[in-house]
Structures are given as C-alpha cells and as structure tokens.
Structure of Carboxymuconolactone decarboxylase family protein:
Amino acid sequence: MSNSRYQIGLDKLALIDGEAGQKVIESLEDICPDLARFTIEYPFGDIYSREGLSLKEREIATVAALTAMGNCAPQLKVHLHAALNVGCTEAELKEVILQMSVYAGFPAALNGMFVLKEILLERGNP
C-alpha cells in the first residue's frame, strides 16, 4: 500500500501540516472516516503531489483562497501553519492577506490577518 493515493497523501500531509493536519484527520474518525480518507487521498495524494507548483506556491494560493472566502478560519489556521512550514515568510503571508482586501474586501482581509496574528503568537513570533 506504499504507493497508494492514501499513503502518498498521508506522507504529504505530514510534510506540509505536521501535527495540525493529523489532528484534523483524527477529529473526523468518529463522525465520518470517509471524509478523513477523502481529505488525505484527493487534496494531498492527488493535488499537492502534482508537479507544476511548489508546496510554497500551493500554500500561498490556498491561503489566498481561504482568506477570500472569509468564513474558513479553522482551515486558514491550518494552512497558515502549513505555509510557514514549507517556507513562506511572515511578510509574504501578510502581503497575500493584504492583497485579498482588494478582491474579497476588508472584512475578509481583517479576519485573515487576525488569524495570522494568532498563528504567529502560537509560534512565538510577536
């Protein structure tokens, strides 16, 4: 099973999200293990494993999308951690979120920036 979508996805999830990603998967096990499996197989096994974009570029796109949606704070939190894990800087993430103020509005950008602030505090960055 080492080459399965599931195993590839698990490996990619661990690389990108570390413990935070595993907690999301575990939180689904008692309510909908199929959704946990789908989350591992499709986004991480199929999409994040593709060539064409680096993990850093994929996380920048994900942070932008989740910020623009404006109602995905838990997912944005996980992906801000992931973005930092794969090499994004604090300054880059601030710029991505600020850029979304143009396309998604100030409320979405404000919400995104507050989530980033929370993440930076958790990671020991004032």
